[in-house]
């Protein structure tokens, strides 16, 4: 085994083989909508060891299509590690020699935690569209249940990019006493009209797919066409014009001549179709509806009247990062967060990292992020 | 009648009531793909009068979803004039007191000119997906047939925005002797990977709609769901983040409280759905496929090896305009055109117009455009 996969099992910077664990909560979670959700399952993974003082725990929060598998490998045969393996491990930015790193799948998701594809114990059938609307604060409240279960009084740090970053911001507002350091990356304190619009297109693609059947498709053909289109359009927003030009330009799929057909003609088309087709193998269309809806609702300052007011309670220190070519959650939106923090006298470092990779840079630019995060976590 | 609609019939700056005319070409048009298309119908409109010297004709070219109805009204009851009525009329930028203005619907379209929804005389059935692939040069070649039919030796000017601008650029390369002045607006000399990607999403939405039926839907339910999604995503690219924020922000559809439902919650969602639903009433899904494909193929310098080389033949003078917030065909792409023209010693004026309106600015910012175009047409 080790001879076949030496890199996975002998890499000193990898957390190695990991397993997803399940936390079952038998109560009811009160949701922002006024509804309740429960009992709850939360899929989570941990890397490193919790110390005796229980003060070395870091929460990592995934983005829209992520899951609890942030680092390491499930089996020696795995070709890909967890989604943020470049950042989590011995000697990495989130150093598992020192920290106990926790990542859980969001409620509403489809990778182990209770979501619309889960069986509703009241009916014995999948929730489908009877699943209640969930929000970013609801996601954070579910994570707090897990935190209590793990016996962690205060996170040493919470970090995540994109929708993960929204939850990071929500954490310090919902539970200011329970977060010491906060690292929101490539994110926003409220979804813009343009981002809501892109989410609306994705949902329209899914909900107009006849296979969607009002969400009751779990025992039949899945709405793969609609979900693939939703993923294709979202994927464009994760890249930059610059990176798409560098990666694909006008390269043709087949050699050097036009085919004059409607099959994908350019490499970028093939790539996008591939992204759509791969996504439907691992993601549930109803989860996509619920999670994009949660993002739409996110507006951290709405209940207090302003972001500055919402940030008044914050006790954590901040490292805010954005990427120069991210047009989904551009630097200007991170600057709004930084301004609100500074207005409240909160200790905040802000860095816009130069990168051509667009929004996806938070999954790619690990060198620069590692330097910044390592320094920040020392303090 | 005039008492009911005084504005339409008495406005001295309007071309007033107009009618679409049809030009029938009985031959075959040789297409870039090697196929042929014919016989051809071309729907066109004219405003103003051709002078005796036949040297005052201006060609206006529409964008993806446009048509021959560029100015005026079909009936006194019309609530909306032609798509560029703000620019065409007595005393306007394209002054019909002085110029004979021509606009024709593109081949492949669905507003009178021969397209996939037209009857193929060889079969007596709609072409559907047996319609040949067309390109921007093919569109221009069809316009040249109309030009010859109208007896116009040389256009005083050609102008258009977006896909219209691509054809404008193609005109001066395909027929350098037949264009005196060239006004490409908010356009590009070749479609970028990102733009191809957005077009690919739109086509995927249409072609995965079961009602599309491989394009054979003309006698049954139309693929309205797929076409609406295609329009929704395209519409986002026509606006800017800034304009969407100013127009919609996070305004709610219903009063001031969340509904916690999957119906559109935010005004921007309602708006986008409305855009999709209106579009399917007037546009053919197969035309959408063919025209976006034509845009994908557009690369003015590809056959000569470079844009600079392609521009060597140009004889026209240029006014190039872009908009500061247009991210579909951003200013940098107009600058590439300007550089290639200047390299060839061609007389070119270039203006980036400050506007928050994104790509759609070419339909909206008529004050600034009018000043610039009026001055340019004097020379």
Quick structural gist:
The structure is a homodimer. The first copy, chain A, is of the alpha/beta class and about 375 residues long.
Percent in strands of chain A: 15-25%
The low-confidence runs of chain A, each spanning 5 or more residues with pLDDT under 50, are none
Distance between the termini of chain A: 41 Å
CATH topological fold name of the largest domain in chain A: Rossmann fold
In CATH terms, the superfamily of the largest domain in chain A is Alpha/Beta hydrolase fold, catalytic domain
Largest interface: A-B, 57 and 57 residues
> In the CATH hierarchy, what is the class of the largest domain in chain A?
Alpha Beta
Helical coverage of chain A, percent range: 25-40%
Oligomer: homodimer
Overall mean pLDDT of chain A stands at 96
What's the architecture of the largest domain in chain A in CATH terms? 3-Layer(aba) Sandwich
Specify Rg of chain A, calculated over alpha carbons.
Answer: 21 Å
Shape of chain A: globular
Please provide the ordered H/E string of secondary-structure elements of chain A: HEEEEEEEEEEHEHEHHHHHHEHEHH
- Strand adjacency order, main sheet of chain A: 1-4-8-5-11-12-13-14
Write the layout of secondary structure elements.
The structure is a homodimer.
Chain A: H1 6-10, E1 21-25, E2 29-30, E3 36-37, E4 40-47, E5 57-61, E6 88-89, E7 94-95, E8 100-104, E9 119-120, E10 125-126, H2 136-150, E11 157-161, H3 163-174, E12 181-185, H4 193-207, H5 224-238, H6 241-247, H7 267-282, H8 285-297, H9 307-310, E13 317-323, H10 331-343, E14 348-353, H11 361-364, H12 366-378
Parallel strand pairs in A: 5-8, 5-11, 6-7, 11-12, 12-13, 13-14
Antiparallel strand pairs in A: 1-4, 2-3, 4-8, 9-10
Helix pairs in contact in A: 2-3, 4-5, 4-8, 5-7
């Amino acid at each position: 085994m080790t001879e076949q996969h030496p890199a996975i099992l002998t890499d000193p910077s990898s957390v190695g083989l990991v397993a997803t664990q399940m936390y079952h909560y038998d109560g009811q979670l009160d949701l922002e909508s006024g509804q309740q959700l429960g009992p709850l399952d939360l899929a989570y993974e941990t890397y490193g060891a919790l110390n005796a003082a229980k003060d070395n725990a870091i929460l990592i929060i995934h983005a829209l299509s992520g899951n609890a598998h942030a680092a390491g490998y499930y089996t020696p045969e795995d070709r890909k590690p967890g989604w943020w393996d470049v950042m989590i491990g011995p000697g990495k930015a989130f150093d598992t020699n020192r920290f106990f790193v926790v990542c859980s799948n969001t409620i509403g998701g489809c990778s182990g935690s209770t979501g619309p594809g889960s069986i509703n114990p009241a009916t014995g059938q999948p929730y489908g569209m009877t699943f209640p609307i969930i929000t970013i604060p609801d996601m954070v409240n579910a994570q707090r249940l897990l935190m209590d279960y793990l016996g962690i009084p205060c996170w040493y740090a919470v970090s995540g990019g994109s929708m993960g970053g929204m939850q990071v911001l929500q954490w310090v507002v919902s539970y200011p006493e329970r977060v010491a350091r906060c690292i929101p990356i490539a994110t926003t304190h409220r979804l813009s009209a343009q981002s809501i619009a892109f989410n609306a297109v994705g949902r329209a693609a899914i909900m107009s797919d006849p296979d969607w059947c009002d969400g009751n498709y779990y025992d039949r053909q899945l709405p793969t066409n609609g979900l693939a289109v939703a993923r294709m359009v979202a994927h464009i927003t994760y890249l930059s014009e610059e990176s798409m030009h560098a990666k694909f330009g006008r390269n043709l799929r087949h050699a050097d001549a036009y085919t004059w057909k409607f099959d994908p003609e350019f490499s970028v088309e093939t790539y996008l179709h591939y992204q759509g087709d791969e996504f439907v193998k691992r993601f549930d269309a109803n989860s996509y509806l619920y999670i994009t809806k949660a993002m739409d609702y996110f507006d951290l300052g709405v209940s207090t009247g302003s972001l500055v007011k919402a940030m008044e309670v914050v006790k954590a220190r901040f490292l805010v990062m954005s990427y120069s070519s991210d047009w989904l959650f551009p630097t200007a939106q991170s600057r709004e967060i930084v301004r609100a923090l500074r207005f409240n006298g909160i200790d905040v470092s802000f860095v816009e990292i130069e990168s051509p990779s667009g929004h996806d840079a938070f999954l790619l630019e690990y060198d620069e992020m590692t330097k910044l995060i390592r320094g920040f976590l020392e303090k």
